[in-house]
Write a structure and sequence with these properties.
Blueprint: E1 4-7, H1 10-14, H2 17-25, E2 29-31, H3 42-51, E3 54-57, H4 64-72, E4 77-80, H5 90-95, E5 100-102, H6 108-123, H7 126-134, E6 150-154, H8 158-169, E7 173-177, H9 184-190, E8 192-194, H10 197-203, E9 206-209, H11 223-227, E10 233-237, H12 246-255, E11 258-263, E12 284-286, H13 295-312, E13 324-325
Parallel strand pairs: 1-2, 1-3, 3-4, 4-5, 6-7, 6-9, 7-8, 9-10, 10-11, 11-12
Antiparallel strand pairs: 5-13
Helix pairs in contact: 3-4, 6-8, 8-9
The structure holds nicotinamide-adenine-dinucleotide (NAD).
Length: 327
């Protein structure tokens, strides 16, 4: 029977026509289940993974029971499209011998561009001006000059350093924190200085979250951390929603402690209709977890994901040793 490649990641689903003939030519069946929304839940994933030989997944539920169900069936390899692997139970994948690969470093530029988009829009009230002009108004808002501000970046990895490079180009002083000591040469190349988390909270006018989500940094930006920021700080999150305690952020927006917030990611996605964040119409900018969503980046990562999936089946031209194994 032909091996089955399951595609649950929406980005590859949308462009599967570009790869289908190539995959089928290797004798592999392509399985693209209908995706409503951003991801599949646990029950659906468990059932589908058990029927697939390899899978390319996105933000889907890849928790321990789901992975175990997959391996109890036919599953022998998993590609996590993109960088974040917080939805994958990596220790369990390792324990049950399920190889999992991701595609890191593929869209640092794109996510950094998006972060700067949030900063520029909020600093100059672009979203309010657009809204007002369309409503027949002509309001001239007083914004902030970026030149001379201090930009603080939490997480100085691939994305964080590209944000730093852009911040310097806009004339900002760039500081950042990380849980590891980042190679000073890498930081010097983008003009950033590593400082303790506390110093970033205290000194930055704009704080961008660009770290990976780990069990240790869940709600890293809580009421306590917010209290230590400058009054009126701008907070931008292009990393993962659960790094911010949204209830504490709502309080901080209400009090003016946080002057504005750009959020590409949320604790629950899509953002619930009754989220209290929606009340802040003038000083928040929301995204749809789309930091990597450019035609160029999606094509790049789709190509790599298909190469990895085929290589896991012992097919295609790519060598698995060239890819990033996370479990
Ligand atoms: N918004 C989007 O659409 C989108 C797209 C791609 C990636 N992301 C997120 O961005 C994250 C970062 O991507 P990357 O390519 O820069 O990853 P990376 O692994 O290169 O860098 C992450 C950095 O964060 C650091 N870090 C971890 N915990 C920290 C903490 N508590 N404080 C400070 N630093 C901490 C790590 O040590 C590492 O240096 C991804 O893990 C993903 O969750 C979001």
């Amino acid at each position: 029977m032909a091996p089955k490649l399951l595609v649950t990641c929406g980005h590859l689903q949308r462009h599967i026509a570009r790869y289908r003939d190539e995959i089928v030519a290797h004798g592999v069946e392509v399985w693209v289940p209908k995706l409503d929304g951003q991801q599949f839940g646990a029950a659906e994933m468990a059932a589908m993974l058990a029927e697939a030989d390899v899978a390319v997944a996105g933000d889907d539920d890849l928790s321990a029971p789901v992975l175990r169900a997959g391996v109890a069936g036919k599953l022998r390899g998993l590609v996590r499209w993109g960088i974040g692997t917080d939805n994958v139970d990596k220790p369990v994948a390792t324990e049950i011998g399920l190889p999992v690969y991701n595609t890191p470093g593929m869209f640092s530029n794109e996510v950094a561009d998006l972060a700067l988009g949030h900063i520029l829009t909020l600093a100059r009230h672009l979203q309010r001006m657009d809204r007002d002009v369309r409503a027949g108004l002509w309001t001239r808002y007083e914004g902030r000059s970026l030149h001379g501000l201090t930009l603080g970046i939490v997480g100085l990895g691939g994305i964080g350093r590209e944000i730093a490079r852009r911040g310097v180009a806009f004339g900002m002083k760039v500081i950042g924190s990380d849980v590891v000591t980042v190679d000073p040469k890498l930081l010097a190349a983008v003009g950033a200085q590593q400082k303790p988390f506390e110093a970033v909270l205290a000194e930055a006018d704009i704080i961008v979250l660009a770290c990976n989500l780990t069990p240790e940094n869940h709600h890293l930006i809580n009421a306590d951390a917010l209290a230590r920021m400058k009054h009126g700080v701008m907070l931008v999150n292009v990393a993962r929603g659960p790094i911010v305690d949204e209830a504490a952020l709502v309080d901080a927006l209400r009090s003016g402690k946080v002057g504005s917030a750009g959020l590409d990611v949320f604790e629950a996605e899509p953002l619930p209709a009754d989220s209290p964040l929606r009340a802040f119409e003038d000083n928040t900018l929301f995204g749809t977890h789309s930091g990597s969503s450019t035609a160029e980046a999606i094509q790049r990562v789709n190509r790599m994901s298909v190469d990895i999936a085929l290589a896991m089946l012992g097919l295609g031209h790519a060598d698995l040793a060239n890819f990033n194994k996370v479990a």
